Structure formats: structure tokens, C-alpha cells
Amino acid sequence: MKERIVGQSGELFCFGQMPVWKAENLPEVLLSGYSSEEGEWVCLNVLQGDVEVRTQDGAAEVWSAESGDCVFAPQQVFSVKLKTDDAEIRLSLYCAAADYFHKKYGMSATHSAVAAARDTVPAGRALDMG
């Protein structure tokens, strides 16, 4: 698992990781079609074996451990089919820096007034919201 990745959407930070899945414990939702929540990118890592990844538009591609990671945009539907008996996969969830604490720790999102103030209050200064 990479702590962060850089893509077209900028720098993304890992806030969660699923267990390693094999043929005997692969969740049905991954076979039929899975999509993440808004603001969550999914990184599919093939640890061993071969896996067919199919997107909602029907395009399919076979991934292996040597292929690298397959990253899906928020709410992009995809499904997986294990092509070899020894296949193992893991999903990692990524988000933008602004959503990290909200996603990782289940905290409420930063209040809009605080977010707006970050551009006007110099670094190292206190912000009294009282």
C-alpha cells in the first residue's frame, strides 16, 4: 500500500485498506459491480495471479502483480473476476487532503467558515472563532 498517490486529481492520501481477498472470500459486490462513495478513489492492487477488471461500459482488461495498480475514480463502477486460482487482491481507499480526517477517522467535515479563513489567516496565527 502506498500512503499517497499522485494522479490527474492531484495528490491523494490513503485512508483505508481492505483485507487480502482470494477466490474463497471475495465479496459478491466485487463480482457484480462495486463503486466507491463521492470523493473516494479505489486502488486495486493485484498481489498475485491474474484478475480481469471490467468497467461499467463493458471494457475489460486483465491485470497481474506486474501490471501495477489500477485506480478508479469516485463512483466509477467496476467488477473483478479472478482468472487464476492463486489470485489475491486488495483494495485501498484514497481521498484528497481536505477530506482525509473526515474519511479516516469519521470526523465531520471542516466547517466552511474555517475553510474560508485558511486563505486569509497567516500561517502560525491563531483563529478565534468564538
Question: Can you offer a commentary on this structure?
Answer:
The protein is mainly beta and 130 residues long. It has a single domain (4-117), classed as Jelly Rolls (Sandwich), CATH 2.60.120.10. It is 13% helix and 37% strand. The chain has three helices and eight strands; from the N terminus they run E-E-H-E-E-E-E-E-E-H-H. The strands form two sheets. A five-stranded antiparallel sheet has the order 1-2-8-3-6. A three-stranded antiparallel sheet has the order 5-4-7. Strand 4 (50-55) and strand 5 (60-64) form a beta hairpin. The relative contact order is 0.24. Residues 17-91 form the TehB/YeaR-like domain. It comes from Neisseria meningitidis. This is Tellurite resistance protein TehB.
SSE map:
Blueprint: E1 4-7, E2 10-17, H1 28-32, E3 41-48, E4 50-55, E5 60-64, E6 70-72, E7 78-82, E8 88-96, H2 100-105, H3 112-117
EC number: 2.1.1.-
GO molecular function: methyltransferase activity
InterPro entries: RmlC-like_jellyroll, TehB-like_dom, TehB/YeaR-like_dom
- Rg estimate, integer Å: 18 Å
Distance between the termini: 41 Å
**Which term fits the overall shape?**
elongated
Topology pattern, helix = H, strand = E: EEHEEEEEEHH
Task: List the uncertain runs.
Answer: none
Largest sheet: 5 strands, antiparallel
Structural classification: mainly beta
- How are strands sequenced across the largest beta sheet? 1-2-8-3-6
Average pLDDT score:
90
Protein name: Tellurite resistance protein TehB
Pfam family, one: TehB-like
Domain Tellurite resistance methyltransferase TehB-like: 93-130
Organism: Neisseria meningitidis
